[in-house]
Amino acid sequence: MEQSTQQAQQLDHLASAPAPGGPSPFAAFGMPGMGGPPPAAPPEPCPIMELDGEEREDELDALSDWVDDFLLPIYGAEVTTAAPWCLQWQEHDDVVAWLHALWLAYQQHKDPEAGLAGLFVWHRDFLLHAFAAIRAPGGPLSACMTSPERPAHRILPGPPPSARTDKTTTDAEAAGSGEPDELTA
């Protein structure tokens, strides 16, 4: 009879809710809602063009490793006039931005939570689109290497500032100098 009473007490103890504020028996497993630590939030992705200094250099180094060791050996088809490339692609800000976004998407889609089709989605929605833009005949690398026998690198000039930016600058200069604003279109 005494053993039955002890077993009943033990069952009652196990079935009761843990004391509030007390240590959870599940804390070591990190189970949310069971007294364990909250799950760590994934780091916020930051576009590489918004980084500065050493943080940007570190991100560019990691991106370069991914491009050189993974992306190009697998997906870097032959360099031609229809698919140019640049050995100094890190100096093309637009190409760096495209490749960084592609790399972030790759990391997301290879995660097990992306499911079995995650990498297919990355190929279809990200890889093909990014490479079509980067390596287009009129794209950002079009003035660079179009044949492996003739390595070349040239950064094409971007468009000038908009007329509104010019007008605002001219208005501010005219207001400061007391001279009339003269704009030519």
Helical content stands at: 40-55%
What is the global morphology?
elongated
Rg on CA atoms, Å: 29 Å
Give the SSE string: HHHHH
Uncertain segments: 178-185
Residue-averaged pLDDT, rounded?
81
Report how far the terminal alpha carbons are from each other: 102 Å
Sheet having the most strands: none
Structural class call reads mainly alpha
Number of strands: 0
Strand and helix layout:
Blueprint lengths: L1 H14 L37 H23 L17 H18 L7 H17 L28 H15 L8
Helix pairs in contact: 2-3, 3-4
Verbal overview:
The structure is a single chain. With 185 residues, this protein is mainly α. It has a domain at 51-175. The chain has helices at residues 2-15, 53-75, 93-110, 118-134, 163-177. It is elongated and about 95 Å long.
Features:
mainly alpha; about 0% strand; about 180 residues
Quick summary of this structure?
This protein is mainly alpha-helical.
